[in-house]
Amino acid sequence: MGCAVSGMAGEKIEATASPVSLFWDQDHQAFCCELRSVPEGRGFLVCDDATNKAVMEELFLLGKKGADCTVTGEVMGRSGEFERLVVSRVLVLQKMPN
Question: Is 43 strand, coil or helix?
Fold first, then answer.
């Protein structure tokens, strides 16, 4: 599945991505997950100041396991090189080891 994000606030998206880092974002005062689209490598930022706790926990788990996923959500705007997303759904694409 491709990525159709142009960075326009309010745009609905569905993208195949891989969580690559989890960190505290001092600017937004939020825990964030950096995602990279597969295979394009486009950068997304998903933070707990806009995305619900259950979705954030799923992304953090996927990041630890190195699993790809499909994220569904909405573009909030840009933050540097990243497009900020509010993610409403995460679908795991790669079976995670137990």
Answer: strand
